[in-house]
Write a structure and sequence with these properties.
Helix content is 31%, strand content 22%. It is α+β, with helices and mostly antiparallel strands.
């Protein structure tokens, strides 16, 4: 997701957050909801005011976009996870302009409060070249999945995700994702749900192109 910049017109920001809100209200209460992307806002760390929304380990600065993001998350029972974990600065700031000595946190993961306890960490990964002044941000989540109690037929293909253990393939994958984020930034003001649908499909396409698929034919599997 890509939000308007801090310098954007108020009307453009209003349209974006109204569109985002129209999507969030459609998500079922028991669904696992994760909001992520370049939100172009600085949320600060005023935990006394926003104890259930932000963490105490973010940056000091807060701006208009950050307040808008905080308000949206508070309304929808979500927590911005970046500031919930203590890290060195190099693993905290998501954007940097080295020539001007500027750095900030504007790329976020936010989850519903019910999912918060499953999040093990959120941190910036340096050294992943994505062709951007943004750094790669990872969120580690520990989820328990319940098995379906019915017979399923597991025939078809699966993604060879183990290829991403190779450094070269991982850099290639991260570079391709960086290009997708750049393209998404050109669609500011469009319908959020439609942009997300196209973006999700593009991620799958990139993943298949980088890691390939392998034929899988394991026959019937019976869950316990």
């Amino acid at each position: 997701m890509y939000a308007p910049t801090e310098d954007s017109e108020k009307e453009e920001k209003d349209r974006f957050y109204a569109s985002l809100e129209s999507v969030l209200v459609k998500v079922k209460k028991d669904d696992r909801l994760v909001l992520m992307g370049d939100l172009n806002g600085r949320v600060g760390r005023d935990v006394e005011t926003w104890e259930e929304v932000i963490g105490r380990h973010g940056e000091d600065t807060q701006n208009d976009n950050g307040r808008r993001l905080i308000g949206t998350c508070a309304t929808n029972g979500m927590t911005i996870m970046n500031g919930c974990f203590e890290h060195k600065d190099i693993h905290k700031y998501t954007w940097e302009c080295r020539g001007r000595g500027l750095r900030t946190i504007i790329n976020y993961f936010a989850v519903r409060k019910a999912l918060r306890q499953t999040v093990a960490d959120v941190k910036v990964i340096r050294g992943a070249e994505a062709g951007s002044d943004h750094y790669l941000v990872l969120m580690n989540v520990n989820l328990r999945w319940t098995r379906r109690k019915k017979e399923v037929r597991n025939e078809g293909t699966r993604l060879r995700l183990r290829k991403l253990l190779d450094w070269g393939e991982r850099v290639r994958f991260q570079t391709e994702l960086g290009k997708l984020f750049e393209k998404a930034s050109d669609r500011v003001g469009e319908d959020v749900e439609e942009v997300w649908k196209d973006f999700k499909g593009a991620i799958l396409e990139v993943t298949e192109r980088v890691v390939d698929r392998v034929l899988e034919n394991t026959g019937k599997q019976q869950a316990d």
